[in-house]
Design a protein that fits this description.
The chain has 226 residues and is α/β, with parallel strands linked by helices. Helices cover 27% and strands 30% of the residues. One of its GO terms (cellular component) is plasma membrane.
Length: 226
């Protein structure tokens, strides 16, 4: 059961699909914990939820789990939304009495507009009582062991005899599509390959172009499916 929290402060984290969503949510949770105030999460999409692909659904599932884990006040999904993003954010801010908004600065996401003065000015005119926290999310990705990776690129895992290898052009045979993150400072294809299956996210390690833990691929797809 949630304990009573301060009502003079309320935080909204705006996330879009990508690997930095969880980091933004945890950043918001740290701030909400310090202020002892409610935390809300918002994601906006022009498409209906029931048309989301596996990758998008995977992010939604993970954020839903994280919201429960962190006892977030509400995870708000605005799907099939045709209005400008700033209008949606402003409406939610008024509805939830938001005083602070956290967004990610990334050239690869829909939220990149947030970094432009005109966008912020529109929001400030509509919700002048809100403080904005623009968090840089274009740092190298870091795994659980602290290893940094380059920006992710689309890639494919294909079966090669008794193992699996990484490919960067769409193959003519069965493959698994995902994102490859190469380790910084290596000339080889070493890193991690992330992909989604049945609305869940998975990752396998890659060393010199080969999957080092093929048992995960086997367990998910079966030995003969790739």
């Amino acid at each position: 059961m949630k304990h009573a929290k301060r009502i003079d402060e309320s935080i909204l984290v705006c996330v879009y699909y990508g690997l930095n969503g969880e980091r933004l949510i945890r950043r918001g949770h740290k701030l909400a914990t310090l202020l002892d105030c409610p935390l809300y999460i918002l994601t906006v999409d022009a498409k209906p939820v029931d048309t989301f692909d596996a990758e998008k659904s995977g992010y939604i599932d993970r954020w839903t789990e994280l919201a429960k884990e962190l006892e977030v006040e509400d995870f708000i999904i605005r799907d099939n939304e045709k209005r400008p993003i700033q209008k949606v954010i402003a409406d939610i801010a008024r509805e939830k009495n938001i005083t602070q908004i956290i967004v990610g600065q990334s050239a690869q996401s829909r939220w990149e507009e947030i970094t432009k003065g005109s966008f912020v000015n529109v929001l400030l005119k509509e919700i002048p009582f809100v403080d904005f926290h623009i968090v840089a999310v274009n740092r190298p990705v870091v795994d659980d062991e602290g290893n940094p990776f380059e920006k992710g690129v689309r890639a494919y895992v294909i079966r090669d005899s008794e193992t699996y290898k990484i490919a960067f052009t769409c193959p003519n045979k069965a493959s698994i599509e995902g994102i490859f993150f190469k380790e910084i400072g290596t000339d080889f294809d070493n890193g991690v390959f992330k992909f989604s299956f049945e609305s869940k996210m998975y990752e396998v390690k890659i060393k010199e172009g080969l999957v080092t833990n093929p048992h995960l691929i086997h367990s998910i797809y079966g030995v003969t499916s790739v």
